[in-house]
UniProtKB/TrEMBL annotation:
Protein name as annotated: Phenylalanine--tRNA ligase beta subunit
GO CC terms, sorted: phenylalanine-tRNA ligase complex
Cofactor note: Binds 2 magnesium ions per tetramer.
CC cofactor: Mg(2+)
Upper taxonomic lineage: Bacteria, Bacillati, Actinomycetota, Coriobacteriia, Coriobacteriales
Catalytic activity: tRNA(Phe) + L-phenylalanine + ATP = L-phenylalanyl-tRNA(Phe) + AMP + diphosphate + H(+)
Amino acid sequence: MRISYEWLNSLVDLPDDPAELVAEFTRTGTEVEAVEKVGADLEHVVTAQVVSKRPHPDSDHMWLCQVDVGQKNVDPDGNPVPLQIVCGAQNFSEGDKIVCALVGAVLPGGVKIKKSKLRGIESCGMNCSERELGLGSDHEGIMILPPDTPVGLDFTDYQGLSDTVIDAEITPNRPDCLSMCGLAVEVSAMLNVDTHIELPRVAHESGPDAHDLVDVTIADPALCGRYTARVVRNVKIGPSPEWLARRVAAAGGRSINNVVDVTNYVMYLTGQPLHAFDLGKLSDRDGRRHIVVRAAQDGEKLVTLDETERTLTSDMCVITDDGLTPVALAGVMGGLNSDIDESTCDVLLESATFSAGHISRTSRSLDLMSEASIRYERQVDGANCANVAQVAAALFEQCCAAEVCPGIVDAYPAPVEPVVIALRTGRVRALAGAAIPNWFMAERLGRLGCAIEKLDVAHYQVTAPTSRPDLTREVDLIEEVVRLWGEGDITATLPAPRNHAGGLTVEQRRLRLIGSTLRACGLSETSTYCFADKDDLGRLNIPETGRGVPVRIINPLVADQSEMRRSLLPGLLRSVSYNVDHDVDNVALYEVGRVFFGREHASQPDEPSYVCGVLAGRRADDAWNQRFDEYDFFDAKGMVEQLLGALRLTKVRFKVAAPEGYPWLQPGRAAEVLAAGESVGWVGNVHPRSLANLGLEVPVVAFELSCAALLRLACDELPYRDVPTLPGVTHDLAIVVDESITYEQLAQRIRSAGGKLLADVRLFDVYRDPVRVGEGKKSMAFSLTYRAADRTLTSEEVERAHEKLVSKVCRSTGGEVRS
């Protein structure tokens, strides 16, 4: 909502500094997105007076003028000195008050005023026409001001063009603040000042009664709660008065003509959308026009004012001519077949309310948003329709020289009744945690338009205004009181304990441990959208097996967020892509969040939580004396091991991930994570093909683990083992095996064969050579440590145990000891 400071100040007293009002808006819950100074493009443009005018010595159509600009041009002693300006206009005389652009001014259209020479004579400014000032199309001569115009004033101040526009984000529950009158009431309550809203009134009514000219029928009250119609005749179409065009522009509209501008102005003023029909374009039956508000028919066509043919559905509401031909798409946009044009003489003025839900669905399904639909979506005050129609009729009378017909046709099947709410003052103070006095509650709620009746010291009966559909319960009134009191003025206090000690649950502690461990590993926590593209899994080649059915969003805000996510990985990969595109090469992120697995014939999806991490680039930024390696599979594997160790999971091992089970991971660089014999997730390099489908050209390593499995298998107790005090004996073993034998398989057989005396197994070398080792073979060298807990081992015991181990391992793997 664009708020003109000048316009709002005419309805309620405002602070001199707009920044004070912005601060109050922010304090009371209205977000301000921007503050714009209007009229800045006419800086260095001032009112002036022609002191002398004589012909240019070297031109037959130019004039050499001395122009008084007051204190805008002075001599060294501070005395005003006229400017010399060469001018080609012919419509002015000595003594005329004019508009002068000084050197340094930049006029609309980018025209820069500089000191120059015209036909050899120096010119220090420019006398301006209306078109050069952006105020009209007249450029035949310069703009002549009234004789009593002061000299040397900034033209924006003189014309009232200088204004501040506050762009505020109005929440959907406050439709009253989508109007200048509603904002005036809000500011009145915020600043505790009186409003002075004076709406125009019809001066004289003449001609036939509106009931003799128009009939209104609402076929479906569920679509239209109220429809009022007024008739104005002999409308003179033309440009709007300057004040009207200026206020429409300040509110974000575009001045078209006086009829359209009046309807837009009243909408901005009151929040009630209006529509003007050309009465002459509606069919005449029995001497009257018959307006029928009904549901559209499936496939029915309507060409709207933007000259686009729309195909309608039965969920939409239309205004029809005698129930047959649609002439407007209710609450969204009028039809081209009844629009106002130069030939319009008589106007049918509509002021109505429509179903918020139907208007919302209509505008979105047709991709047709308008200022009217935005207001109808948030609910328009049906009790005020007739009053607004009166205001619009009065402005038609003033700005369009129209004759207002007496009477107003009003179809109102279900009148809106104000809500009556009981308010307990003690409850207000209890919920607010502040000693808010009764007088403050009554005063500020009264300024919001509520009718207050005091029942006793502790109880009020409050009648909420119909313009505030959000006020339906006692707690809504309490929220308004607290908002105006100021949440920042309420002292923060801890909730009182009720015979129990507070603390985190086991699950909460473990979830925090997951986050702190990953942050200690160098990852940064992030949070991505729960909404996802329906093609996310397909782009990454992630099978849908085990991920339920998609949970689709009925009305997605954007096309690529049409369903709930079923994996955290696509969102994190997009974060990597965003960072890389913005020259952040080293990315290490993790997220703990829910995914959504839909179920057939179930009202709610499963919502398991996962922890997912992505690594791209280098481990750290390179320094002058050190260059860091890029992240690889073992970095991610080490982080997963660190996390599982912090949670004290037992029997952790990594199993080579089968390519057919993990097609989004790079074969040979991926592993399934197992704990206590149960799969808890995966870790590996994301397949280059999957990355390319998301527009990523850098390698990415990732992992994803089930939070449910981690929390279930985590232990609080750490098994204790005595620190070894007896020496161990170390043997190296290099064994040649087939390439297909993995480290995990070989290490598992070594541990099994070593028995109780084998204390540690560590791989320290892998060697391949077709000549020395053999084709399709590899040599894996291990360091084996033997130790007994109760004695020092003898060399004979170690040798027997080692020979037994070597024999069993070679027999089970088909390997041989490398000499």
